[in-house]
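Cross-posted from the bioinformatics board.
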Amino acid sequence: GDSVTQMEGPVTLSEEAFLTINCTYTATGYPSLFWYVQYPGEGLQLLLKATKADDKGSNKGFEATYRKETTSFHLEKGSVQVSDSAVYFCALSFPNAGGTSYGKLTFGQGTILTVHP
Amino acid sequence: NAGVTQTPKFQVLKTGQSMTLQCAQDMNHNSMYWYRQDPGMGLRLIYYSASEGTTDKGEVPNGYNVSRLNKREFSLRLESAAPSQTSVYFCASSAQVLYGYTFGSGTRLTVV
């Protein structure tokens, strides 16, 4: 079945450091890829997405590029802030599976990021 | 604020007790989902409802039942709670997955 694997956490960085969180997937076909973020005590929020190979999703200074050849969707940010401390989830979906658009999301295990001042 | 509302936020059950987790959304979304979140395992889909009147099993449906009461409401029932069902439960809804899911704030359930 489809699956998503994220780098082991937790990740601890100093403010203004460069962030990379690795994500690879296994799927039959070409899914759409997503990054979700969960702040303490809250539900998940969509951070960014990419729907086809070589697409780059970006939001709030975060970026990720859909690499079909390596089946990867690594999350990057050039300079992290304390407010970026959260849990980050990589996910995939086939939006048009079965002729519908509801598309179930399959999540990775999540990576805890802590940023210190 | 509009969104997905889950109740209760916290619950402690004894083994064998039953309970229903409630979820309601006010965004007119067709699809709704129930996930559980466990440390190191991410979110796993329990049940989903692609549209009003339909429900389907997800990855981990055993021990749970659901009801899509109307377009707004999607409840999750534990008939006989077990310690393995200790988890944080999230309800979500979407118009279309590419637009993103909207998640509730979760229910932290402990079964003792």
